[in-house]
Specification:
The protein is of the alpha+beta class and 75 residues long. The chain has one helix and four strands; from the N terminus they run E-H-E-E-E. The protein has a four-stranded mixed beta sheet with strand order 1-3-2-4, covered by helices on one side. The mean pLDDT is 90.
């Protein structure tokens, strides 16, 4: 059985690159989730250009959820 922890960092300078990189990361996470079982995929947006894709125990197997945790600090 493969490990059930996986976190991939994804970033890009433009929307097309971000989408391409996110798709590749989610595809990798799906492959890992199918091999390990038991966890779904959580995609988290941290900034406008930075994301993580994680196998997460709070997401049911077979599902992908998205959340935003944008930095609210004025800059």
């Amino acid at each position: 059985m493969r490990p059930t922890t996986l976190t991939l960092e994804v970033s890009g300078k433009d929307p097309d690159t971000i989408q391409t990189n996110l798709t590749a990361a989610v595809d990798t996470a799906i492959t890992q989730a199918m091999a390990a079982g038991g966890h779904g995929i959580l995609v988290t947006q941290h900034t406008y250009n930075d994301f993580t894709v994680t196998l997460h125990p709070d997401v049911p197997y077979g599902q992908t959820r998205e959340e935003r945790r944008l930095d609210k600090t004025p800059g």
